[in-house]
Design goal:
Length: 456
């Protein structure tokens, strides 16, 4: 008869007792413990990265300056090192048009957080290309340009460097202006490209050493890579005139040099987007094959969102479209291996503005407000320095353009300004004009007058 459902199940069988250790297993365990006791202390003191192969790296100068500024408790302290826009109250400024775009994105029922395509958001990259190359650019109408969304301008420079390191068969030396953005040399060095310098800033005039620049570019081996800042040169604030750009184009065309444009300040320099891109557009019109790195950090105030774009333009000709298609395919592989897919938020903000005529017009007004405030600070600083009778000439303050100015102050003078007056700037005398405002400019001008006057 089958057991009823209420019958109790038999108790589980007891787990087998562990086998008693044998003499052999005890001996093996003892040997293992003995070996481990000798290995552990030795491993604790061994590294594959000793100091002679991985030395302590120096602190990044700009981040070190920012750290020192934050630690200063003086009410008089002034930050002239920061490479970001500040309003007249020394506060970060979120562009009104960015706030509007943010609201549009948040309220959109289509908002999601899926991956972007490898090349980025098409509505963003296409408008970014039109913005910097020109909507009627032959590079676009003749379909000989390709664009990739990048991690701000830094990522664009890296992608361009990586592409050239892998595929460029000309002279693999990148010529940088003396001086240039601090990260340029390191980016190219990290991908195995050599760098050299061409004269740029004249300490005598605090302006452009154009003759030295031309001579060096003329003397560079044919098909060298020449890195150029199309506007608001970082860190000097000194730009060539349009006539000088045309002279440079002639030389570079004769020497078959490859232009590498790094544009971080379009619209932020003069307040005019087309004017700030005029050098790039001229070179394209002259038939150059070139690349352009584009940042939206400064002109949208999207510093931490890392929105940028990389554009490659090939020269005109029957094979141009096929050439740029091949280039685009290789750029996609490099992008995939580096970051896979670019970030969304900053690009969405910029894309929303770039694709809406009303928001675009408001953005242009925001740009004019930012660039206009910086221009007014340039005029005020020069005026105050001259009114105080500060030794030297100070016209270069207003001759230069963009966020930064090379003041001509020496390293000892810069150190005194920091130690005695709590004014922070890079040791080469570069100041961020955005750090000046109506509340601190008298303190800055008076301090410079005293330091310069006492060291003449």
């Amino acid at each position: 008869m089958a057991p009823s459902s209420s019958s109790s199940a038999p108790p589980p069988a007891p787990a087998p007792a562990p086998a008693p250790a044998t003499a052999s297993s005890s001996s093996s365990l003892a040997r293992i413990n003995n070996i481990a006791s000798h290995i552990s202390p030795a491993m604790a003191s061994v590294t594959s990265f000793p100091v002679d192969t991985v030395p302590q790296a120096p602190e990044d100068a700009l981040f070190g300056l920012a750290r020192a500024y934050r630690a200063d408790t003086s009410d008089l302290k002034v930050d002239l090192g920061i490479g970001a826009y500040r309003d007249d109250n020394a506060k970060p400024w979120v562009l009104p048009v960015v706030k509007k775009a943010d609201e549009i994105l948040r309220d959109s029922p289509e908002l999601n957080h899926e991956y972007a395509p490898i090349a980025g958001i098409p509505d963003f990259t296409s408008k970014a290309a039109q913005l910097i190359l020109g909507a009627d650019s032959p590079a676009l109408t003749e379909k000989r340009a390709t664009s990739m969304q990048t991690i701000s301008g830094n990522g664009a420079v890296h992608l361009g460097a990586l592409f050239l390191a892998k595929f460029y068969k000309g002279c693999r030396t990148v010529y940088l202006s003396n001086t240039t953005w601090a990260n340029h040399k390191q980016i190219f060095g990290n991908v195995g490209l050599e760098t050299a310098q061409y004269p740029y800033f004249s300490k005598q005039s605090n302006g452009l050493d154009f003759e030295g620049m031309k001579a060096a570019i003329q003397a560079a081996p044919e098909r060298s890579i020449i890195l150029l800042h199309p506007c608001a040169h970082n860190p000097t604030g000194v730009d060539p005139t349009m006539d000088q750009w045309k002279e440079l184009a002639v030389i570079m065309g004769q020497k078959k040099h490859f232009p590498f444009f790094d544009c971080a300040y379009q619209g932020f320099a003069s307040g005019d987007l087309a004017r700030d891109a005029s050098a790039i557009r001229y070179f394209i019109g002259q038939g150059f094959e070139l690349l352009v790195c584009q940042s939206f950090a400064k002109n949208f105030g999207l510093y931490g969102e890392r929105a940028g774009c990389f554009h490659m333009v090939t020269g005109p000709g029957a094979e141009a479209s096929a050439t740029i298609t091949r280039i685009a395919s290789q750029l996609a592989i490099l992008q995939r291996s580096e970051i896979s897919n670019p970030p969304l938020y900053g690009a969405r903000i910029a894309s929303t503005v770039l694709n809406d005529p009303k928001l675009f017009a408001e953005w242009e007004e925001n740009l004019r407000n930012m660039s206009g405030r910086i221009i007014s600070m340039r005029k005020a600083l020069r005026s105050k320095l001259e009114a105080l009778g500060t030794p030297g000439t100070w016209n270069h303050i207003t001759d230069q353009i963009g966020m930064f100015s090379f003041t001509g102050l020496s390293e000892p003078q810069v150190q005194r300004l920091r130690d005695e007056y709590h004014i922070y700037m890079t040791k080469n005398g570069r100041i961020s004009m955005a750090g000046l405002n109506t509340k601190n400019i008298d303190h800055v001008a008076n301090a410079i007058r005293k330091v310069v006057g006492e060291t003449q």
